[in-house]
Write the structure tokens for this entry.
Amino acid sequence: MNIVCLDLEGVLVPEIWIAFAEESGIPELKRTTRDEPDYDKLMHWRLGILKEHGLGLKEIQETISKIEPLEGAKAFLDKLRELTQVIIISDTFTQFAGPLMKKLGYPTIFCNSLEVAPDGEITGFKMRCENSKLTTVKALQSIGYDTIASGDSHNDLAMIQASKAGFLFRSTEQIKKDYPELPAFESYDDLLHAIQQAL
Amino acid sequence: MNIVCLDLEGVLVPEIWIAFAEESGIPELKRTTRDEPDYDKLMHWRLGILKEHGLGLKEIQETISKIEPLEGAKAFLDKLRELTQVIIISDTFTQFAGPLMKKLGYPTIFCNSLEVAPDGEITGFKMRCENSKLTTVKALQSIGYDTIASGDSHNDLAMIQASKAGFLFRSTEQIKKDYPELPAFESYDDLLHAIQQAL
């Protein structure tokens, strides 16, 4: 039996932190896992910048409420969910993902959670488990699933490589060059076709 | 972080085999996990009866296409999916569940698969893993989730007991009597309220 594991940001919705960097006018926040493979380091650095600017959960959620899924993402996901089981595995946080999941028709998402003070300051974050994408894919395999995975960034590589089939989607030139053995797609039609072949 | 694990038949949709027993006029097929705790024994017995009557996947799928979710089930599930992550963990088969998942708005379901001959005879079945409900709940716990579970039958008891909170839903008098420590509900409103309290 198969289950498809998809990254969220860059694959189904725009990068949330990039949208917030633009909205807030703080260009440093454009740094993502595409640029910084160490997620813990990246998140602590982001929280420092938020604190410095006096920004909290409310301001980020306001930006997120304006974000739409990438063009064609919902149709792709709808088709995929008709064919097989799908789980979005993301390093984002429940407090960010909620409104986006609504716009995508409530697919299942496995992500993390933020620690938020009563005044809205984001004081920390709780990762669901270590190496969450790989660990989750391994857990799904342990209960009888063959996984098929797709993502765009450094933190997706382990789940892609550990899966029966794995695909880069709208990744960076550098990642595509560094992992020439991984099929890389730019359109939802091509990704859907590749997943169908793997099912 | 929380995830709600729900049984399918008897909780969100009618018992598929009971519906098929009525449609086909074979009353023996009314036997379910409520009556026979050994699922493997139950399934082999069912496949024997199907073979005897010359019935296959096509005939069962025709019955399933006419089954509707239980009254209020979709609204309950929709509300729950707005609040938290939900996975249906069922001992049914992908070939049976598909049309029902469509009617429920494509929630994620973890179930099993049938082995079907080219002529439509169901020749066997492949269980995803042993003790699938408990094993799946344990796997979800291993990736950082607290589980909240609900079901109606013998095969739901282990996942209910292994969870942070667990509830019987529209269960038998015997099971309710044998497990007086498990809160038992009859309405979706009561079940939703109990889950909300546990979140």
